[in-house]
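Archive transcription. Copying these from loose printouts into the bound notebook so they stop getting lost. Printout 1 of 2:
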Amino acid sequence: MEVAIPIDFEQMKEVKTELTRFMMSYKFALHEVMTKIDILKEEFQYVHDYNPIEHVKSRLKSPESILK
């Protein structure tokens, strides 16, 4: 027996908007951290003539991965 579940499109739209805002904040925060690390790398290279930070990678997790 299959039960029909009413879909509330307004609620779905609100959830999508909230998720989009969260993902943007997440992306911007990651970008800010990467910028600060890049500044540290440049500063060490300029001031100390060496750089203890060899390389840095970042990635955004998908919303599905965050939920898991």
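Printout 2 of 2:
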Amino acid sequence: MTIIIKTKQQNKILFALSAIVFCSLMSGCQKESQEATEETVLINSPDTLEKIIPVTLIQPIQKNIDITLHAVGRIESLSSPTISGETSGKVISIHVDEGDEVKQGELLATLDDQLLEILKSQEQSELKRIQILIANKKRTLKRRTKLAQSKSISQDSVDETQTELSSFLAQETLLYNKLAAIQYKLDKTKIKSPINGTVFKRYISKGDYIEEDEHLFKLVSLSRLRIRLPVPENKVPGISPGQDVFLSTPASNQKAQAKISRLLPLINQNNKALEIIIDIDNPGDWRPGATVLANIILERFNSALLLPQQSIVKRPSGNVVYVYDDLTKTVKQHVIKTGNSITLKNVTPNSSSQTQSLIQILSGLRKNEQVVVNGASYLTDNARVSLVVETMVKKTMVKKTMVKKTMATEQGR
């Protein structure tokens, strides 16, 4: 009898526990059903069961863009002569040193000219002697010509005097040429700068004896510079003289804008590159030998239309974008033609990266049309969509209403 009573009590306990579990499960199902209903209301239109895809929109970005080719080259001086000796002699004085700035015609060094001065004096004395003989022969020729006219002397005597005079005149010309050559060498004992520039290298010292064609100084002009830029051969068709180039160098804070001056005729066989020449005025403190960074403007677009990469979808018909229609809440498929890929600093608010890859749209889209960005790959032509921005606003409004109701209930209690 006791055993039966215990069994009935156990059955009652099990029945009570089962009822509690069933109620808990029913309560959870009702809550999930209510949440699902709320989500459906927020995402789906109440008058249709058609699938609606949440999307975000963007309007094409308009921007002036330059299509550039980056190149790294070197800076050279447009004028960097090596001064060599044009006469032999001993260096008796040096007036400049490496790093000194010099003007055109400024004295750099002086050679011993004593021997040349002696030779000059000798030739000048000989010239005076010949000139005296010439004067005498001219007087003799004049007198003999008169005598020959009166038949006092023969014509042969006149001709002989004329020949002697011609010989003296030839010697005079020779002496003039010798004196000019000596004076030329005397002038070359004064080593002068042919340009405005800076002394880059000094090869001689005081007391050196130099020969003709021996290197004395290396000068560099900093006022005019030459930029040499190698361009890969596959980029050559887009390069031509007159194109704009933006230049900078790690050796200076100064920047420059110039134009391509000329292209060399041959492609370098070692690196398969064509060399571009750009001649510019020194923008400030640029120095020959430094590296130069260049952006060559290949093409310019004013008010180009740009879209993020994720808004462009590949379809059998080609590259397409989906344009949002606010009246029908649907999207229309537009086949587009794309251009260049541009990397810009963050220009759209929904991007978390510092830079964005944007694609140029050449045709198929107008500047005032709104294009789907997120969710574009799930769309087809005439698909119904809902804007994620609107959904977020509705959810926020529902949450705020629920909070207000809860506060009012607690205050009533």
